[in-house]
Each structure stands twice: as structure tokens, then as C-alpha cells.
Amino acid sequence: MTARTLLTDELLAAIRARAAAHDAENTFPHEDVADLKAAGYLTALVPAESGGAGLTLQELSHEQMRLAAASPATALAVNMHHVWVGVARQLAARGDHSVDFVFDDVMAGEIYAFGISEPGNDLVLFGSTADAKPDGTGGFSFTGTKIFTSGSPVWTRLGTFGADRSDPDRPMDVFGFITRDGGGVTVKDDWDTLGMRASQSCTTILNGAHAPADRIACRIEPGPTMHPFVFGIFSSFILLTSSVYVGLAQRMLDLAVEAAKRRTSAKNSGRAYAQDPDARRRIAQAAIALDGLYPQLDRATADIDGLVDRGPMWMPQLSAIKYRVSETVQEIATSAMKAAGGASYFTKNELSRLYRDALAAVFHPTSEDSVHGMWASALLGPLES
Q1: How far is the C-alpha of 322 from the C-alpha of 234, rounded, in Å?
Q2: Which residues are CB-neighbours of 384 under 8 A, at least 6 positions away?
Q3: CATH topology of domain 228-380
Q4: Nearest-10 crossing angle of helices 9-25, 350-359
Q5: Alpha carbon of 372 to those of 165, 313, 315, 355: distances in Å?
Q6: CA 212/CA 280 separation, integer angstroms
Q7: End-to-end CA distance of the chain
Q8: Which end of the chain is flanked by fewer CB atoms within 10 Å, N or C?
Q9: How confident is the model at residue 272 (pLDDT cuts 50, 70, 90)?
Q10: Residues 83, 236 contacting (CB under 8 angstroms)
Q11: CATH level 3 topology of 9-107
């Protein structure tokens, strides 16, 4: 079956043409998001029976690669919106329709953001430092600081979590969804970073932000878990975020190839660097590394779409994909800069911007330490106390 696409070449060209200015000015790509919304891209994962485009996770992974090749920061800005739709889609496919309201919201034009990461909290999904105070009727009010909230200028719905400590002997993590206009939400204007600048992933302060009972997804014990809702977040986040960086790496490799064909070497009688053995090997090595990422992402996204049960190895294997992508994109970024020569060091050069964007990959979960810990536990058992 031919993969479906929502992103036309003309749309991607327009987004690429705006990317440099947004990076230089540290501004959010409002026009990009408006164009993507008009193209139906924000409804990509919503099932067709709910009115959406009905793309599979694998198809959206390919689309996110293409979008990232045009503007990595724009792809990242809408990525977390797709993550929450992906969670709802996975649950619905398993017969759990408790968060189908996500589909309704998205079809009504709402934009979702990711309020999970917290400063100094390397537990990420497996334990929150924020508070979730029960309201007595099944809802909760969230108080705490959330960081890296991509798409800060435009989100209207925030998926978040906090710890319910009403029973001190048994704290519980509570996952729910709040509205931006529902009170208790402050978005700081603090995103001034080395790369991924247009994503505007600002800090979000929650102070009693309320989610009613019908917007509470689950209440579970903290710690590593294969709970379907948490697994939905973990898998959708890992695979779609990795797709963004694979698309970025592909663009850097393409630019390196173009530069090698264009640059000439006085040492080699004016011949192009594409004829230089060292340059050829460097580019070939980058291409080989990148080539290995595509089948991993394709297999994993296909297995998620097919509801394949890999058992307890799912979490380590997903983490390994993200770690491998993070490390590989750094290698390709360095190789591409070398292949393009000194001109790539100037800020006006696209490679310069992409190089800075690539560095952001290491700050997304799962961390290098965490993925190695997962695999050590899977293979050797837990550490003895």
C-alpha cells in the first residue's frame, strides 16, 4: 500500500523558506502551524471514523521526517500534539475509549502540548514532583513546574501529571488534561536556547490548574510500568521524536553531499571534494549510520500500529532506538559540517542552524544513563540492595 501524505512539496518549501528567520529572531512559526492546520496535518492521527486523516503511526513518522527536513523546530513544535493523539489512538485500538475526547478536541481545532518533563526530575514518566490535589468529585488540581513545553504560544490543551499525596502511605501519579484558559496556568517567556529556537518550548507554571473527572486519564502507582496509558505516551513520544531527528539528519547529509559536489580543492587540481577519498569515506560513513535508523523506526511503528506485544522488552527497545538516533544524529551533524567546510560555520548557512538543532536530541528522554540501566536490568536483573 502506498503511504499516504498530507505534506505537499509546496508547503514544505514554504516552511523551509521561513525557518532561518524564526531561528535568528527566536520567534514561533505561527504561519507554519496555520498552514499545517489548514492541510489537516494536526488531525493526521485521528481515526477516519472520528473525522481525521486516519494516518498510521508509521505514516506519520515518515511525515515528521519530511517536515523536520524543512524545519526541525516546526516539526518539534507540533510533535507533542501528535504524541497525545497517538496515545488516544493506541488506547482506542485496544478498545479503551476513555480519552477519545482528544479526537473530538483536535477535530474542533484544539492544540495539545506535553506537560510531563519537570526540572531536576530524571524519573520523567515514572514519578512526578508536582502535586495533584483531589477535588472530591474525581477531578484534580495540578501545581508544579513543567519544562520543555513545545509549542507554548499556541497550545490550548495540556496533558500533564502530578502526585496525589492525600494518602501519605500510598502516593499515586495522576495523569490528566487541563485547558489553557481554565485558570492556574502561567507560560513563561524564557525560551532562548542554542537550537530548536522556533519550537518555543517554554516553561509552564501550574498553580491549581484543574482537570475535571472526565479529563483524568488514570491514577497509578509511581515507578516503571507498562500501564497502557503510560506505554502509549512512552512509545508515541520516543518514535515520533526520533523521527524528527532522523529527518534532520537526512537533510544534513543531503546538504553535505551537495557541498562536496560543489566545493573544489586546490590541492587536487581544482577537482571537487566529491572526488576526494577522505571526503567520500566521511559521507559514506554518515550515510551508512543513517541508513540503519530507518528500518528500526519502521519496524517499531509498524508493531505499534499492529498492537504487537513485545512484552517487557518494549521499553528497553524503544529507549535504545531513541538513544541510537541521538548519538547518530550527532555524528552525522559533525560529518556534514566537515564535508561542507568553513562556510558551514557561518550562521547564514543552513547547516549551522541544523547543527545546533541536532544537539537538542540528547536532552529528550530517554537519557543515555537510563537506557543503559534498562538494558542492564533486562539482561542481568535488578541491582541488589
Answers
A1: 11
A2: none
A3: Butyryl-CoA Dehydrogenase, subunit A; domain 3 (1.20.140)
A4: 80
A5: 31, 13, 12, 26
A6: 59
A7: 52
A8: C
A9: confident
A10: yes
A11: Butyryl-Coa Dehydrogenase, subunit A; domain 1 (1.10.540)
- Name residue 179's beta-bridge partners: 157
Please name the residues in contact with 254: beta carbons below 8 A apart, sequence gap of 6 or more: 69
129: which 3 cell numbers?
514532583
Alpha-carbon distance of 5 to 53, in angstroms, equals 10
The 3-state DSSP class for residue 153 equals coil
C-alpha triplet 12, 18, 20: angle, nearest 5°: 115
4: three-class secondary structure by DSSP: coil
Grid coordinates in use for 141? 488540581
CATH superfamily, region 112-220:
Butyryl-CoA Dehydrogenase, subunit A, domain 2 (2.40.110.10)
Structural domain boundaries in the chain: 9-107, 112-220, 228-380
Q: List the grid coordinates of 171.
A: 502516593
Instruction: For residue range 166-178, list pLDDT tens digits in order.
Output: 999 999 999 999 9
In this prediction the pTM is 0.97
